[in-house]
Design brief:
Layout (H helix, E strand, L loop, with lengths): L2 E5 L4 H12 L3 E8 L12 H15 L3 E5 L1 H17 L6 H20 L4 E3 L4 E6 L2 E6 L16 H4 L2 E2 L7 H10 L21 H5 L8 E5 L4 E5 L22 E7 L4 E6 L7 E12 L9 E6 L7 E5 L6 E11 L6 E6 L2 E11 L3
Parallel strand pairs: 1-2, 1-4, 2-3, 4-7, 8-11
Antiparallel strand pairs: 5-6, 6-17, 8-9, 10-11, 12-15, 12-17, 13-14, 13-16, 14-15, 16-17
């Protein structure tokens, strides 16, 4: 029997993860992590409600619940990077950095301090040991698979973690929670970033990056609208541009943050929105070693995208170029690109730029 500390978020997934570990005979302790305090309220970041739900679940399961505040670590190692990236005109993914720096570093360290053998979370992913190494595999429920957000984990982290619901479908998880009369069985799944909550993204970001109006231009240099600040917008964005007129919708193709200009085209399938080759930096390989090259694999440049065939011909000292079989739509610098071979996530990196149509 192992002592496993489960990250309790107050949601149904972590609730069932804890219940399954108990059923397997493990000694289970819950740990609630508070990662955000700035402007914390029930409207925007319902940490108090989540904690109350976690407490009720742990009470029903008969397991202790510890709490820890990682707000300082989150601010300095996740949120500051988030702001710096937006300030430079990129589109970061803070969930990826949070998993690396908070949930599978600070959380693991705290769990070890509390005497745990392993940690567990409610992620839809799986870990398999193969040839003395740990593989990160997709969750069985492909519509909920979260391996995309976990590609920065290393062998040490994967050797310390369990994903108890990785073999389950989301509906099975809810049914299991209802069977156990857990109050989270019908709780709405959280979406987006906690500190943003239900408010408009640009309104939130303006508290840290002041609005700076500028022109929205076509590729021919015609001004067709005004924006609030180039760093508020991302490549491929359609909503919130405020451009009237007839014809197809407008989409952002690229930004010039230094000149504070956003460039747009009309039509979802405009060639200016397509790129076949992507330059990638900050590469991370889950095995600890780069793959044998050239590597033919699958990749996706956003969480809910269908995987695309690509090749990595070589790897430079600071970056690599990924060549896709088919052009990719709206490639956003700062986002993560994640690589797969079958159902195994082998690593990923941060998109630096897109090169050719």
């Amino acid at each position: 029997m192992s002592h496993i500390i489960v990250g309790m978020s107050g949601g149904v997934d972590s609730s069932v993860a804890a219940a399954k570990l108990l059923e397997e005979g493990h000694q289970v302790t819950g740990l609630f992590m508070k990662n955000w305090e700035e402007d914390d309220s029930e409207v925007y970041c319902a940490a108090a409600k989540d904690l109350a739900d976690a407490e009720e679940v742990c009470s029903l399961l008969g397991i202790p619940l510890k709490t820890v505040n990682f707000s300082h670590e989150y601010w300095t190692r996740v949120f500051q990077i988030f702001l710096d990236e937006y300030r430079s005109g990129r589109t970061p993914n803070p969930d990826v950095v949070c998993n690396k720096e908070i949930k599978f570093k600070e959380f693991v360290n705290w769990a070890i301090h509390l005497g745990a053998d392993y940690v567990a979370t409610g992620h839809y992913a799986r870990v398999q040991r193969k040839n003395s190494r740990h593989e990160l595999k997709k969750g069985r429920d492909k519509t909920k698979d979260q391996s995309y957000f976990l590609y920065m984990l290393n062998q040490e982290a994967l050797g310390s973690v369990s994903f108890p619901i990785g073999e389950m479908e989301k509906q099975e998880v809810r049914e299991k929670a209802a069977e156990l009369s857990l109050p989270t069985h019908d709780k709405k799944s959280s979406t987006g970033i906690c500190f943003i909550g239900e408010r408009r993204f640009a309104d939130f970001l303006s508290r840290f990056l002041p609005p700076q109006t500028g022109p929205i231009q076509t590729l021919d240099g015609e001004t067709v609208g005004q924006h609030r600040g180039a760093y508020y917008y991302t490549i491929g964005q359609r909503q919130g541009l405020g451009i009237g007129g007839d014809g197809a919708p407008w989409y952002i193709t690229h930004k010039d943050v230094k000149r504070n200009i956003i460039y747009v085209v009309q039509g979802h399938d405009d060639p200016a929105l397509l790129r076949r080759t992507i330059r990638v930096e900050q590469l991370h390989w889950i095995s600890g070693n780069p793959p044998i090259l050239p590597l033919i694999c699958k990749a996706k440049i956003r969480y809910q995208q269908e995987e695309q065939t690509c090749v990595i011909p070589s790897i430079g000292p600071n970056y690599t170029e990924v060549e896709f079989e088919s052009p990719q739509w709206a490639v956003a610098p700062g986002q993560s690109i994640v690589f797969y071979q079958d159902d195994v996530c082998i690593g990923g990196g941060i998109i630096n730029s897109a090169l050719n149509p």
